[in-house]
């Protein structure tokens, strides 16, 4: 990665730290992109993003067929789009690690609720426009 891309990656990593709301897009059963709002539960910079969805949700069902996905977040004139792959984590260690008390309203059995799962998104490509600078690069 060249110096400019490294600088922009650092900006992207700083940007994601301050944004918990995003849109998550997957491919639907007809081959079209389908976006929905998500709340980011955790991340490792922009390289890995974690959030939750119930096993019965459209996101969960669609990821079973195609794991290609995208995450987008923005504020003012700044925009960050991540393109990559998403996998569903159902192991108890992952569920416990990411559990947050407000989830009890969605998952009444807590972190052992059978409908509770974690989505791990791994970024392959970053596209951003932050502080009047734009860039696109792969990770």
What's the short version?
By secondary structure, the chain is an alpha+beta fold. It is 22% helix and 47% strand.
In terms of DSSP E residues, the strand content is over 45%
> What is the helix fraction of residues, given as a range?
10-25%
Question: Quick one: overall form?
Answer: globular
| Distance N to C terminus | 8 Å
Question: What is the chain-wise order of helices and strands?
Answer: HEEEEHEEHEE
Poorly predicted parts: none
Mean pLDDT: 95
Q: Which CATH class applies here?
A: Mainly Beta
**Total DSSP helices:** 3
CATH superfamily: Electron Transport, Fmn-binding Protein, Chain A
Number of domains: 1
Secondary-structure-derived class: alpha+beta
Annotated CATH topology: Pnp Oxidase, Chain A
* CA gyration radius, whole angstroms: 15 Å
Largest sheet: 8 strands, antiparallel
Total beta strand runs: 8
**CATH architectural label:** Roll
Would you write up a description of this structure?
It is globular and about 45 Å long. By secondary structure, it is of the alpha+beta class. The termini are close together. Helices cover 22% and strands 47% of the residues. β3 (42-44) and β4 form a beta hairpin. The protein has 3 helices and 8 strands. The mean pLDDT is 95. Strands 1, 2, 3, 4, 5, 6, 7 and 8 form an 8-stranded antiparallel sheet that branches. The chain has one domain: Roll (Pnp Oxidase, Chain A), CATH 2.30.110.
Annotate the secondary structure layout:
Layout: H1 3-17, E1 21-27, E2 33-39, E3 42-44, E4 48-54, H2 58-65, E5 68-75, E6 78-89, H3 92-98, E7 116-130, E8 133-138
């Amino acid at each position: 990665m060249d110096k400019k891309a490294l600088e922009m990656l650092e900006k992207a990593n700083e940007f994601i730290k301050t944004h918990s709301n995003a849109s998550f897009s997957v491919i639907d059963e007809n081959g079209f992109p389908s976006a929905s709002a998500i709340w980011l539960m955790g991340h490792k910079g922009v390289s890995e993003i974690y959030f939750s969805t119930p096993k019965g949700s459209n996101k969960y069902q669609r990821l079973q067929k195609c794991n290609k996905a995208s995450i987008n977040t923005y504020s003012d004139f700044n925009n960050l789009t991540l393109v990559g792959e998403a996998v569903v984590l159902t192991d108890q260690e992952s569920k416990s690690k990411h559990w947050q008390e407000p989830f009890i309203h969605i998952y009444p059995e807590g972190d052992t609720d059978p409908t509770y799962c974690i989505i791990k998104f791994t970024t392959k490509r970053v596209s951003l426009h932050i502080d009047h600078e734009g860039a696109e690069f792969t990770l």
